[in-house]
Specification:
The protein has 428 residues and is an alpha/beta fold. It has helices spanning 16-24, 47-51, 64-67, 130-149, 153-159, 169-185, 215-228, 272-281, 326-344, 380-393, 397-413; strands at 7-12, 30-36, 40-42, 61-63, 74-78, 81-85, 90-93, 98-100, 103-106, 110-112, 161-165, 199-203, 230-233, 237-242, 245-249, 254-258, 261-264, 268-270, 291-292, 298-299, 302-307, 312-313, 359-362, 368-371, 376-379. Strands 5-2-1-9-21-20 form a six-stranded mixed β-sheet, covered by helices on one side. The protein has a four-stranded parallel β-sheet with strand order 13-12-11-17. It binds flavin-adenine dinucleotide.
Length: 428
């Protein structure tokens, strides 16, 4: 007699949610197939440091195989998922291979939302992948190089104007890092321009930066941004993005801002995979394409399909959808893994409950805001907390050590050693 084959779990996406789910299944009698189109897990919260030359891509990415090498019940497959056969319980890969499952966990993340203007993306790149980060790094550093060689004052000013669209945590962090580069890192390196003359504009359509934070921290963040040289333009809507200029409208007529470096950090939407799954499983989606999940993170009518992380619209205690942040994805992954394990033991667990540990964002060198609910602080102490938490959450010890050493070096020398232009700006 042959032994019954173990329960087959497919996890699509080796990001925060997918990886946490795989780890939560380590003691379960299952065979897990983790599918990701990349061979690495990326710590997106530190991508802006790659984009601004503070860290190298390898510092914030770890091979999925290395992370999971001791977990014998996981098989990693590097390929893109392009289709779901929900009735036949199979996932279809780009190369046509079909992989069967008993339970399916889909956690393929999100992408940026250009609010109906996909054509803006080529002029205002997003920050989502390693390639995005190295492209942005190339554009920023090329801008200073071009300004150095430019004789025309108007063009030089355009090269030294950096517009960041969207003042959420990523926009604020990028703007702060750019201010640090121009005011400290590049000081004395150029002969014909002063990098400190750079204009760094942080444009936000809403009335405030860091909209999700309490007003006291927003005020602190705004003051810090101004002090370090970032010009904040809130209540200012971007109406057009063209090769070398941004058009904005702050309610008093349109204004055209010539700028050679325009970066996009505004709004997110679900990946196309969410739409594919929604159609295949007849699932409901929200305004930005996320799949609306049940309290146990499954799709209505499909207890075998879980949707997690940035792809999922999951209601929090207050009835609003939970934010697209790493702790939500991590906790959902752990929950889904445990639920599958418990089901196999003939038990169940209650609905998913998010434990909110708080939020934090850096604002350049030695400044941050931290909102833990019971503690709201800004400044140096907040920055130390930010450093510590981000180090702890990096996936492997090796990366933690390397990032710690790199940060210590950068802090004391004002340097950023990963200042390589690996993607030249062909748009010059
Ligand atoms: C620049 C930036 C800064 C951020 N800063 C913070 C922060 O400071 N704090 C915080 O909490 N959160 C932050 N976030 C948000 C956080 O990174 C996300 O909420 C989190 O990554 C979501 O996890 P996830 O597992 O849902 O998706 P992801 O981590 O995005 O993982 C999705 C995975 O799916 C894979 N994938 C996608 N499509 C397919 C496919 N078709 N086939 C196979 N694989 C596929 C991708 O390669 C990826 O590995 C930031 C995000 C960005 C972009």
């Amino acid at each position: 007699m042959t032994a019954p084959s173990p329960h087959r779990v497919i996890i699509v996406g080796g990001g925060f949610a997918g990886l946490s789910a795989a780890r939560a299944l380590r003691k379960a009698p299952v065979r897990v197939t983790l599918i990701d189109r990349r061979n690495f897990h990326l710590f997106q919260p530190l991508l802006y440091q790659v984009a601004t030359g503070g860290l190298s891509p390898a510092n914030i990415a770890s091979p999925l195989r290395a992370i999971l090498k001791r977990q014998k019940n996981v098989n990693v497959v590097m390929e893109e998922v392009v289709e779901f056969d929900v009735a036949g319980r199979e996932v279809v890969l780009r190369d046509g291979v079909r992989i069967p499952y008993d339970s399916l966990i889909v956690a393929a993340g999100a992408r940026y939302n250009y609010f109906g203007h996909p054509e803006w993306e080529q002029f205002a790149p997003p920050l989502k992948t390693v390639e995005d980060a190295t492209t942005i790094r190339g554009r920023i550093l090329t801008a200073f190089e071009e300004a150095e060689r430019e004789a025309d004052p108007a063009l030089r000013k355009a090269w030294l104007t950096f517009v960041i669209i969207g003042a959420g945590p990523t926009g604020v962090e990028l703007a702060g890092a750019l201010a640090e580069i121009s005011r400290h890192t590049l000081a004395r390196e150029f002969r014909h321009v002063n990098p400190a003359d750079a204009t760094i504009l942080l444009v936000e359509a809403g009335p405030r930066v860091l909209a999700a934070y309490p007003q006291s921290l927003i005020d602190k963040a705004q003051r810090t941004l101004q002090r370090i040289g970032v010009t904040v333009r809130t209540a200012t809507k971007v109406t057009n993005v063209e090769p070398h200029q941004v058009t904005v409208d702050a309610g008093q007529g349109v204004e055209v801002i010539p700028a050679r470096t325009i970066l996009w950090t505004a709004g997110v939407q679900a990946t196309p995979l969410a739409g594919l799954l929604a159609r295949a499983a007849d699932a409901e989606t929200d305004r930005i394409g996320r799949i609306i999940v049940q309290p146990d993170l499954t799709i209505a009518g499909h207890p075998e399909i879980f949707v997690l992380g940035d792809m999922a619209h999951c209601k929090g205690k207050d009835g609003n959808p939970l934010p697209g942040i790493a702790p939500v994805a991590n906790q959902q992954g752990t929950y889904a893994g445990k639920l599958i394990h418990k089901r196999l033991l003939g038990r169940t667990v209650g609905p998913f409950k998010y434990f909110d540990k708080g939020t934090m964002a850096t604002i350049g060198r030695a400044a941050a805001v931290v909102d833990l609910g019971w503690l709201r602080i800004g400044g140096y102490l907040a920055w130390l907390m930010w450093l510590f938490i981000h180090l702890m959450y990096l996936v492997r010890f090796e990366n933690r050590l390397l990032v710690f050493l790199q940060w210590a070096y950068n802090y004391f020398t004002f340097n950023r050693s990963a200042r390589l232009i690996t993607h030249p700006n062909d748009d010059r």
